[in-house]
Automatic annotation (TrEMBL):
Belongs to the helicase family. This is ATP-dependent DNA helicase. The keyword DNA repair applies. InterPro entries: DNA_helicase_pif1-like_DEAD, P-loop_NTPase. Keywords: ATP-binding, DNA damage, DNA recombination, DNA repair, Helicase, Hydrolase, Nucleotide-binding. It comes from Desmophyllum pertusum. Its cofactor is Mg(2+). GO terms for molecular function: 5'-3' DNA helicase activity; ATP binding; hydrolase activity. It comes from the Eukaryota. Pfam families: PIF1. Signal peptide: none annotated. Its EC number is 5.6.2.3. It catalyses: ATP + H2O = ADP + phosphate + H(+). Residues 6-124 form the DNA helicase Pif1-like DEAD-box helicase domain.
Length: 131
């Protein structure tokens, strides 16, 4: 997707992302959020950055091509996340594969973050702080 095919508002968001800002993109269904996210992904990849897309649900992952996105639970190896937070973090920090994955990611995109619990956001933050 070229920048020319984006609306002026979408192009502005892409330019903001290119300048290194953290973003929260909101809007109603059909507003073009996934179009913007895919443009950001493509731009980052063209610049040699490793991008990971995580989603709050498997349904949210379906707007991306196969393999481009994973659920938060899957990406971070949290499973059902039904054990105490300290145990989850301890288990995840001991996972060398996850450690390698997290240290290789330059840009993290969390699709449908508003559908995640505060606990899940805190867990992910703690994992990034521990790596």
């Amino acid at each position: 997707m070229s920048i020319n095919s984006l609306t002026p508002e979408q192009a502005e968001i892409l330019e903001f992302a290119k300048s290194g800002h953290n973003l929260l993109i909101t809007g109603q269904a059909g507003a073009g959020k996934s179009t913007v996210v895919n443009s950001i992904r493509k731009d980052c990849q063209q610049r040699g950055l490793k991008v990971a897309v995580v989603c709050s649900s498997g349904i949210a992952c379906k707007v991306y091509e196969d393999g481009a996105a994973a659920t938060v639970h899957s990406f971070y190896g949290l499973g059902a996340a039904d054990i105490p937070s300290k145990q989850l973090i301890h288990r995840a920090v001991g996972d060398s594969g996850l450690c390698k994955k997290l240290t290789s990611v330059d840009v993290l995109i969390w699709d449908e973050a508003s559908m995640s619990s505060a606990r899940m956001i805190e867990l992910v933050n703690a994992l990034h702080l521990n790596y």
